[in-house]
Amino acid sequence: MAKLRQFQRGETLIAQGDQRGNQDAIAYIIRNGWVQVQRQRTEPDTLLINLGPGEIVGELGLMGLAPARTASVVALTDGQMEVIDHATMIRLANGSAKDIVPLLASLFSRLQSLQLQQNTSILQQDGSPQPALATIAPDNALADQVLCGHAVTVTHLPWVFGAYRPPTSVTELLRPPQPAADIRLPTPDPTIAPNHLTLQRNSDGEFELFLAHAGDLLVIDDEPVAKIPPTQCVVLAPGEHRIAFGRLSDPYAFRITT
Within 13 Å and on the Cβ side, how many CA atoms surround 126? Predict the structure, then answer.
């Protein structure tokens, strides 16, 4: 098992320009919490990317593909990550297939994230920002950590709340990739699914929540939602709505404004 490292909000995990030797290079697989990749290109142009559970940082240095760190990585929240150095990578590569799957999954996730960033524009054809369809804000400490303390603007639908589920076998790893959740929930709770809740519009143009998995708890505007039938949609009238779902003792809670 790789060594685990705790990190705290505001901590610099990697500094751009650091010229450590290849044998000292390490990468990190995020287990919980969020970090921001900050790449200074030309003044005052800075590329910012947020990465969360299951994703990897520092992979170029680990693989010897860059003589110096190409970006800084700063913790947005408290969290935990696995430390992958050369010795760990060699041990994983020489071990059983199931041992290296988490590392490969993180690399695949990173490649998928980069592809999505290249193919997705936040601007319309005329250069103006995409219009805000809704906003989602944290309503408790657990949701606050997921959203890094900030509300997010919904610019496309459907918008998915889902748990990160790392693959456990090579067969599972090589299956066709599923669309990543827009809000990735770092939880081992088996009652929260990868496509747990989806904010969408119906044929009448109304906002609704599609409940693929009700789990142990689902409350919308202080009203518990029945688990039967297992799939259903709840229409959201214009305005602010509070949702809570997940574990009974420690649910995620968000505010959705439509």
Answer: 4
Say whether 20 sits in a helix, a strand or coil: coil
Hey, what's the torsion of the CAs at 50, 135, 255, 35, to 10 degrees? 10
Residues 158 and 107 in one domain: no
CATH code assigned at 168:
2.60.200.20
Give helix 86-94 / helix 97-119 axis angle, nearest 10°. Answer: 120
Domain ranges, residue 25: 3-119
The 10s digit of each residue's pLDDT in 20-51 is 655 467 889 888 888 888 877 655 555 677 88
Q: What is the pTM of this model?
A: 0.68
Distance CA 241, CA 154 (A): 15
Instruction: List, for residues 73-110, the tens digit of each pLDDT value.
Output: 999 888 899 998 888 888 877 877 777 777 777 777 66
66 Cβ partners below 8 Å, 6+ apart? Answer: 60
